[in-house]
Design a protein that fits this description.
This protein is of the alpha/beta class. It has three domains: about 35 residues; about 100 residues, 2-enoyl-CoA Hydratase, Chain A, domain 1 (Alpha-Beta Complex), CATH 3.90.226.10; about 45 residues, no CATH class. It is built from eight helices and five strands, in the order αααβαβαβαββαα. Strands 1, 2, 3, 4 and 5 form a five-stranded parallel sheet that branches. It is extended. The termini are far apart.
Length: about 250
């Protein structure tokens, strides 16, 4: 009986070891053949078709049988006529809801590239429905430069503002040929602000020394823990003003 017990224990350990090895090999193989993550996809909606469907749904529930039949007959005639004629101009609509860090610019870049690759500058136009209170300078600077690509390609650009386009958002809007704003929308201005707390007095009060070693006179201007000087403040104001001018 003791022999059978020892054998069974050995057999169980062996099986456990084999299963563990199999699991590890499976994980390695699955990770090796795991497909690479895909980039985000651009979704394209036909706004004209959506409006037509809304209109037809409304008419189906409001017109009488005779009026509805006459309307559908007229629509078929107009559709055949439109198919024979040269294609009309297109209006490409982009929605940009900007956050503080303007990470949406990655999607905007792809959308701009897609439109420029197929749009006809002589006929087609672009409308950007913009909403943003602004954010980081470098993020919104890049966003504005993406809209500038439409201008460089000769495509007319209009920005519409329903609620707010301030600071960096307004900078994006200023790139456009036309700005359309709702009566109570907040529009503007382009400004630059930087603020930083300073704990130097607290450190001194508690006999805490703060040392910072830099190379270059203005590697750092204002700091959190060091004693800020008038010269450093003036340099910081100068940098803020340069950013505003840009």
């Amino acid at each position: 009986m003791e022999f059978l017990y020892e054998y069974g224990l050995f057999f169980a350990k062996t099986i456990t070891f084999v299963i563990a090895i199999a699991v590890i090999l499976t994980l390695i193989v699955s990770s090796a053949v795991k497909p690479k993550a895909k980039k985000g996809e651009i979704e394209i909606d036909d706004l004209s078709e959506q409006l037509t469907n809304i209109k037809e749904s409304f008419l189906n529930n409001t017109l009488g049988k005779k009026e509805l039949k006459a309307y559908q007959k007229q629509q078929k005639v107009e559709q055949k006529k439109a198919e024979k004629e040269a294609p009309k101009s297109r209006l490409y609509v982009i929605d940009f809801n900007g956050s503080m860090d303007a990470h949406e610019v990655e999607s905007l870049r792809e959308e701009v590239t897609a439109i420029i690759s197929i749009a006809d500058p002589e006929k087609d136009k672009v409308l950007v429905r913009l909403e943003s209170g602004g954010g980081v300078v470098h993020g919104y600077g890049l966003a504005a430069s993406q809209l500038q690509r439409f201008k460089s390609a000769g495509i007319e650009l209009t920005v519409s503002i329903d609620k707010v386009a301030a600071s960096g958002g307004y900078m994006m809007a200023c790139v456009a040929d036309h700005i359309i704003a709702a009566p109570f929308a907040i529009v503007g201005s382009i400004g630059v602000i930087a603020q930083i707390p300073n704990f130097n007095k607290i450190l001194k009060k508690n006999d805490v020394d703060f040392e910072q070693i830099t190379a270059g006179e203005f590697k750092r201007t204002l700091t959190l823990f060091g004693e800020n000087t008038d010269k450093a403040r003036e340099k910081f104001r100068e940098e803020i003003e340069q950013t505003h001018v840009l």
